[in-house]
Design a protein that fits this description.
Blueprint (H helix, E strand, L loop, with lengths): L2 H23 L10 H25 L9 E3 L6 E3 L8 E8 L2 E8 L1 E2 L6 E2 L4
Antiparallel strand pairs: 1-2, 3-4, 5-6
Helix pairs in contact: 1-2
Bound molecules: zinc ion.
Amino acid sequence: MTADVLDRKRAQFVALAEAAFHRMFGSDGQNGLVTFAEREERACEVTDELARWLMAEHVGQDPLGEAGVEQPCPICHGPVQEESDRSAPSAVRELMTRRGKIEYRRTAVRCPRCRTIFFPPG
Ligand SMILES: [Zn+2]
């Protein structure tokens, strides 16, 4: 990940954390939350969302999903170089985490020998 991308991600996270803080405290420091159960519910809701965002963004940056990484073809087992082609088909993967379901995108790769199109693991 380049420093630019990392800076952009950090700014996105800070904006989300800011919004989470606002949903907890509002502009009056209470935001209509009265009982402890309400406070707990809201705190868990907003931090679960932050946790899911962190996981989805982190797994989306997995080196296996980046261009230039070699993968073995599942059919002929030869090495396949992932292309940086952003128009390549991609699939949304779902993963159930302790903080709820996250989704991330995986780009397909095509084996140059047997023409198999497959999605790298992970
Ligand atoms: Zn192959």
